[in-house]
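Quick log. Single chain, no ligands specified.
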Amino acid sequence: MAFSYWNNDKILTGGEIHAYMLHHLLINRIVIPIPDFWMIWVGAFLGQGVIILLHKYPGKRGEWVGVFVVTNFVYLIVSLQVYISGVFVLPIVLPSVTFWIYILLHYRIKNDFPT
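-> predicted structure:
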C-alpha cells in the first residue's frame, strides 16, 4: 500500500519492491520526516518573538529584517544539509511562510513596515 501511495498508484513488480527494500536496508537509509505542524508552531513562535524584538529596538527595524531574511536562507540550506547527511526531512516552505506572515501582517496592520 505504501508503494502505491508514493508512486501515484504506479504498479511495481515484486522484484522492484524487493530491490527497493533491499537497497534501503543495505545502505541503512531510512528517512525520518519531522511533522510540518510542529515546525509551523516553531515558525509562529519565532514570528511572534521577532515582533516583540522589533518593538524593543524600533530604530533598527530595517537591519533586523535583513538579518531575518539571511537567517531564513540559512535555515533553507541547513534543512537541505540535514536531509542529505542526517536523513531527517525538515519542512521548509510552511514554517518560513508562517514566520513571514506573522511579521508582514503585524506591520501591515500597524502601517509602519521598516524600509
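Residues 34 and 90 are 6 Å apart (CA to CA).
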